[in-house]
Amino acid sequence: MDRIRIKGGKPLKGEIPISGAKNAALPLMAACLLTDKKLTLINAPWLADVGFMSELLRSFGVETSYVRGPGFGEGGRLDLTARNIVNTTADYDLVRKMRASFLVLGPLLARFGQAKVSLPGGCAIGARPVDLHLRAMQALGADIQLEEGYVLASAKGGLTGALVDFPLVSVGATENALMAATLARGKSVIDNAAREPEIVDLGRCLSAMGARISGLGTSCIEIEGVEALHGTQHAVLPDRIETGTYAMAAAICGGDIELTGTSADLIGAVIPLLAATGTAAVSTNLGISVRRNGVRPTAADVSTEPFPGFPTDLQAQFMAVVATAEGRSHIKETIFENRFMHVPELLRMGADIQVQGDTAIIQGVEYLKGAPVMATDLRGSSSLVLAGLAAEGETIINRVYHLDRGFECLEEKLSAAGAEIERLKE
Ligand code: EPZ
């Protein structure tokens, strides 16, 4: 298994290009199942999760082709054609590797009137049930049975437009409902919809494929079903979590970097928080400039929220930043019940953190110290990279495959900005 070695203590300088968003690319890929015409995604990131989703789509008979961009961080082109679908079963082995696989349920059901999708099971950050996805499909007229770990969904005469009213905000369930409703008969309304930029991006792509959608980016999305969708070419939204992660890298290391190919409105809740720690982030023509001088960051409190609030996917990274701050910070995790797995690893690097229920209390220390560490999820691993970049001495990050799921060319991008970071291949 590959590892990453970091020699910490260097300020960052230069440009970091931001890739297309993993969490936009995955639902966009599932959307190819809604049409027999070609869907082309440009600015598509080269990530392990994109590979898993391609594998799943190929198991249905989708033709896939990925051509990498010319340089690191320059997005690739992904062509997907779901013309000859030979199978509508998403196997356990593929779904358990990546929960986002469950996003094929809505499109398969809408276009083929049937789908058999493995239940994903729990994962490291929480139980993550799929009841809201199933509730949405039932509202649209599907019959749902659970058998031997699989969801058996059918809608023989097709789906019917309806009110899908979510009791809590779910990104994935909103995406599944939105995709399914595009081909349902009549009008659907998704109430208490998630408002994440990735949902707006999906909705824009579906609209370019011929779907009739209004209310994107609000908590009430309306969809007028159409008979069929067609192909299109769509550019994947920049990754706001990668953007926020590198902005926080500048916050913890100090320095002056420009994040290119992204925009400040994607991290609206992050910018004032960075400012509170003493890091300035401002829009530029190319993206965002992030700067912090040599003084230690200042402590700040935050609570994770659905968009437009502070994202849970940046909670671990922000914890690394305030671990070295002057003063005491509080971070409350409201989305997932077990998303503090990076804490014991940060403690091994000399951080002073106590977890009380859903809140971590972080007393900033002057220096973190390099150590061998590992995390059990993607964003937690990236917080250890940030801690390693700022720490005295050497940090070895184990289980790099977590990082490969969501950060394209991580070592190349950080090295180009002056960090001493390399991958140890095994
Ligand atoms: C998406 O997951 C992201 N994944 C996650 O990113 C992100 O952390 C999360 O949204 C929250 O922003 C993708 O977009 C592929 P949810 P998702 O449904 O859709 C509960 C990363 O690191 N819930 O919005 O699975 C759930 O347990 C990943 O890139 C139900 O109770 O998240 C959670 O507590 C990790 N029943 C809350 O809702 C359901 O049927 C929000 O989850 C569905 C969800």
Please, how many helices?
A: 14
- Class of secondary structure makeup: alpha/beta
Radius of gyration: 21 Å
Number of strands: 24
Can you put this structure into words, describing what you see?
The protein contains 14 helices and 24 strands. The chain is of the alpha/beta class. The protein has a 4-stranded mixed β-sheet. The model has no long low-confidence stretch (mean pLDDT 96). It binds ligand EPZ. Ligand EPZ binds next to helix 1, helix 5, helix 6 and helix 12.
List keywords for this structure.
single chain, 426 residues, alpha/beta, 4-stranded mixed beta sheet, 14 helices, 26% strand, binds ligand EPZ
In short:
This protein is α/β, with parallel strands linked by helices and 426 residues long. The protein has helices spanning 22-30, 48-60, 92-95, 105-112, 131-139, 171-182, 197-208, 240-253, 270-277, 315-323, 343-348, 378-390, 401-404, 410-416, and strands at residues 3-7, 12-17, 38-44, 63-67, 76-81, 89-90, 114-118, 143-147, 150-154, 163-165, 187-191, 212-214, 220-224, 232-235, 255-260, 280-283, 287-292, 302-303, 328-332, 352-356, 359-363, 372-374, 394-398, 420-424.
